[in-house]
Amino acid sequence: SQTIHQWPATLVQPVGSPLSLECTVEGTSNPNLYWYRQAAGRGLQLLFYSVGIGQISSEVPQNLSASRPQDRQFILSSKKLLLSDSGFYLCAWSKGENTEAFFGQGTRLTVV
Amino acid sequence: GESVGLHLPTLSVQEGDNSIINCAYSNSASDYFIWYKQESGKGPQFIIDIRSNMDKRQGQRVTVLLNKTVKHLSLQIAATQPGDSAVYFCAENNNNNDMRFGAGTRLTVKP
Questions:
Q1: ω into residue A8 within 30 of 0, thus cis?
Q2: Percent over 90 (pLDDT), chain A
């Protein structure tokens, strides 16, 4: 069966520090991968998605970036965090277009 | 489209009643829709999906209705239980590889 792992679960980082959130999927190959951000009490904002290794589509211009160094690994990064980067970050995967997405448990990031 | 800047609308129902959660989507080209349930501090979980060639689909205690004419999607939960309390999101996909979420609705079930 397929599983998705996302870590860490919580993270407190100072303003201006770098960020690296990692997501890995097991039990499937060539998945679509997604990063979403969710502010407290609000909806999900699509940040990046990837249909293959090295292929990243960015939805929102900001100081975040994503990379897919391996087929089932998706990394969300920042060189310098802003206070506004605080939120709940969710990684997800799907088998392709027009299929359901499966979510990780999320990382709650607080920038102080 | 995405409504990530809005506070979540809320729906409060009595235990045992039926719940109806609504969602409006903006892209008439969208042809696949999903309802997700998100409990506090967790990632969203799949509930039910529907493709644009259907207008109704039923699952266990849940029914999704799709009205393409007015671009409206609804989720009906029968005999709502306290465990149904969560935030519910609709999502749309239009043959692209991205998936867009609606603003979400917070469902509270009163005992």
A1: yes
A2: 79
Closest CA to A25 of A5, A9, A8, A7: A5
Give A-chain residues touching B4 at CB under 8 angstroms. Answer: 38-39, 42-45
Confidence at A87, pLDDT banded by 50, 70, 90: very high
Is 3.40.630.30 the CATH classification of the domain at A3-111? no
Give the model's pLDDT for residue B100: 85
Q: Residue B26 CB: number of other CB atoms within 10 A?
A: 12
Nearest residue on chain A to B92, judged by CA atoms?
A98
Nearest to A46 among B8, B41, B98 (CB): B98
Any idea which fold B10-110 has? Immunoglobulin-like (2.60.40)
Residue among A43, A49, A99 whose CB faces B101 most closely: A43
pLDDT > 70? residue B5: no
